[in-house]
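Weekly sync notes, structure subgroup
Attendees: PM, AL, DS (notes)

Item 1: joint prediction request from the bench team. They want all four components modeled as one assembly rather than separately. Inputs as received:
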Amino acid sequence: MTEVFERLSGLDRLVHEPARLAVLTALSVCRKADFMYLLRLTGLSRGNLSTHLSKLEAGGLVRVEKRFVGRKPNTLLALTRKGERAIESHWRRLDELRADSRQWSPAADEKKGESE
Amino acid sequence: MTEVFERLSGLDRLVHEPARLAVLTALSVCRKADFMYLLRLTGLSRGNLSTHLSKLEAGGLVRVEKRFVGRKPNTLLALTRKGERAIESHWRRLDELRADSRQWSPAADEKKGESE
DNA sequence: CATACTAGTTTGCAACACAAACTTTAGATC
DNA sequence: GATCTAAAGTTTGTGTTGCAAACTAGTATG
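Output from the run, pasted for the record:
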């Protein structure tokens, strides 16, 4: 099944990018977290985290809720239903692809790439 | 251990990028494969595969061996020792991070991100 | 009033992923 | 032997990305 590698090379970049993978994974455990918390958690810069979150919001994976705590602004993040499914299935896909690639045999594919 | 997410967001992009993850994973099973074989395997375009391979070579993860088969040029790819270690440890790291994140508890970290 | 801090957002830039166009050599056709 | 097609890659052009530095807006402090 050579299709394994096609699926590997076609992984969803919105989810796969390391910083976003970290944010989504954290939120999948956390349920909700605020901006400053994610900042410390991931070690990203403010600007960087901000743009990643915008992308996740644009993709419909994360819900952004702005509010005030005392007199200070506070941005609360949570996965949408779609986001939950996305991160969960991304990890599952990685597991599967890894497992499949292990038991894949090049010789079983019609055209081999030389063993010299 | 919040460090899990720092490590997640700091994954090596050279290895993590989907197309290259596919190529490296295939080569780790294959030992050697030629350009056209990887092309079919991954479903990438020629140009795209070529530049990804150049990057992997520049990073010292892949060895490129050009030769002729009959009268036709043929490019043979294989992991370097460094490449073997890189792909193997990348998958292992993903496994670990995934597992760690599962048993991570937000509440255990000093500052919580709101559960409202 | 000014100065500093907090909580983000916007901007500018270098690096990237991708396909289209190009290169080079070989074989087929006239 | 000139012309065409194909194979096997590489280079180029372009839109996108990831990133930190610079900016913004509101609050607190001297």
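Discussion: Helices of chain A lie at 3-9, 13-16, 18-30, 35-42, 46-58, 81-103.
Action: AL to compare against the crosslinking data before next sync.
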